[in-house]
UniProtKB/TrEMBL annotation:
<feature type="compositionally biased region" description="Basic and acidic residues">
    <location>
        <begin position="28"/>
        <end position="44"/>
    </location>
</feature>
<feature type="compositionally biased region" description="Low complexity">
    <location>
        <begin position="45"/>
        <end position="69"/>
    </location>
</feature>
<feature type="compositionally biased region" description="Acidic residues">
    <location>
        <begin position="106"/>
        <end position="119"/>
    </location>
</feature>
<feature type="region of interest" description="Disordered">
    <location>
        <begin position="1"/>
        <end position="119"/>
    </location>
</feature>
<feature type="compositionally biased region" description="Basic and acidic residues">
    <location>
        <begin position="77"/>
        <end position="105"/>
    </location>
</feature>
<feature type="compositionally biased region" description="Polar residues">
    <location>
        <begin position="1"/>
        <end position="12"/>
    </location>
</feature>
<protein>
    <submittedName>
        <fullName>Uncharacterized protein</fullName>
    </submittedName>
</protein>
Length: 119
């Protein structure tokens, strides 16, 4: 068992993280190598996860943008219809106003005369 530990095998890894100093030096290389490999492997996995996350986020953003664009288009459509409707109404109202004003002018003169007579 002793010889196995000095080569940094699985037995060594199960020992406490703080072995005796003399063992440290012997075990250093395989352990370092392994941790390096582990690190690069972890790093690789992290990168993949990040890429996935970014892709998902990007997809979400795109979907949100698409929704926003759809909403904007809908709103613009509604606004256009409203404006057209308003314009239509406005022209109607304006025409009615003009008629009323025309009638008012016709009516105002005799009314004024009547009021003067009453006073």
């Amino acid at each position: 068992a002793r010889r196995e530990t000095s080569f940094g095998s699985t037995v060594q890894e199960k020992l406490p993280a703080d072995p005796e100093p003399e063992e440290e030096t012997e075990v250093m290389e395989p352990k370092e190598q392994q941790s390096q490999e582990q690190l690069s492997e972890q790093h690789h996995q992290q990168q993949q996860q990040q890429q996935l996350q970014q892709q998902q986020e990007h997809q979400q953003q795109q979907e949100q943008q698409q929704q926003r664009i759809d909403q904007q288009e809908e709103q613009q459509e509604e606004r256009r219809e409203e404006q057209q409707g308003e314009k239509h109404e406005e022209t109607l109202v304006e025409k009615q106003d003009e008629k009323r004003e025309g009638q008012r002018e016709d009516q105002e003169e005799p009314q004024q005369q009547q009021e003067e007579e009453e006073e």
